[in-house]
Amino acid sequence: MPLETKLIALAILVLVATAAGIFWRVNTGKAHRVRSGEQVQLARLEATKDGSAVKAFGKRATFVQFSSEVCSQCRTTARILGEYETKHKDVLHLEVDVTDKLDLAAHFNVLQTPTTLVLDGAGRVRARIGGTPKHGAIQEALESLEIR
Description:
The chain is of the alpha+beta class. It has helices at residues 3-27, 42-45, 72-87, 102-107, 137-144; strands at 31-33, 48-49, 52-53, 61-67, 91-97, 115-120, 125-130. It has one domain (30-144): Glutaredoxin (3-Layer(aba) Sandwich), CATH 3.40.30. It has five helices and seven strands; from the N terminus they run αβαβββαβαββα. Helix 3 links the parallel strand 4 and strand 5. The chain starts with a helix and ends with a helix.
């Protein structure tokens, strides 16, 4: 293969990789609306809060954060969502470790950690955020989904 062809192929590969990286960066951390509206069962999540089993969703919304122990962004996401929960008493933040619940990760198509599902007061999935939420993404998700 001539050197010129190899250089062109390399340039195309670099451009494609760069475009994919930009696409990923732009979309990571934003809330994306989910149309399925799947009803989540709290018992299936086996979620606990302060050592007790969670028995109800947040009245306004519930953030279900899928994390793993080796995830560096998960702690930041948990802090952000925890602060939001503290400021808004009608919001609940739950963290699920996907290491022990691979079936849940597969069911909810969790391809990266953190991934956060935004549930309405009835526990239906309304949006998802892949990665650490960008500034305003949480509030934007709640407002755009009319979860009030």
